[in-house]
Task: structure prediction
Amino acid sequence: MRQFHGIDLAVKWRDTFLEQYPNEILALMLPMLELHLSEQDRMALGSSTPGFAEALLLDTPVAISTGLSQQIEAALDRFRDGVFLRTGATSFKSSLLPVTPAKTVKRAMDILSLPNRRSAAFLADSLVNGYDLNLFAFPWHDIPPWSEFRIFIRDRRVIGVSQYHHQLSFPEIPANERAIKASLSDFCGDLLDALHMDTVVADAFVARREDGRFRATLIELNPFIQRTDPCLFSWKNGGDFDGGFRYREASDQPQALRIGGQQANDDPWQLLS
Result:
């Protein structure tokens, strides 16, 4: 077998795959349907990425199974506004196709068939190392870029939160800073209670409820490694995680509210442990 980028990924990464989430974690996410990916389906999906078929010694083209098509159709019947598809390890986001809802089986197949080295690496790893990697269908939900945040957790303590799309500044964050912090602080408490890992990076988004308050929802978990984007923090010299909440101001300078003595008495952000 030839080497394919990503084969034999670190086993500990698999704890961040959706297949491993306990029910308490799933309750913090949008509803979803888990769709079984057979070995045939994983070979078929990975084969669209150059080098995959050669690395796994696939001599002939592999077709997606009828069973997978039927599962996707059932997901579309349940989520009528369309679905967002991803494997338990990663999404199929690609620069070749805008991120839009899949509302038909054909559209879903178009998304799944695009070359994607990241998703293909995990598909290959699952085949080589003999573990299940499935497809997950989420109801389509528009998530504004300003509303996404990355939460860094080490030894079951929140050591920092940053806006996810950190290259840009968004007026919505300072305009709603207190409410956003309050929702993320509450969410972090629930997340720490539910986590099956002591050290991890979590992505979440906030949305305004009918009562005007914000609610945070988990998107996914990521390994706590330097390959994971630290956003407005840094991995250098062991990291500069200070337990604060960071976002980029319009002046293009990172803004950070620190904890401890510098924390305003009426500020809802607290270091959780």
Remarks:
- Residues 256-266 have pLDDT under 50 and may be disordered.
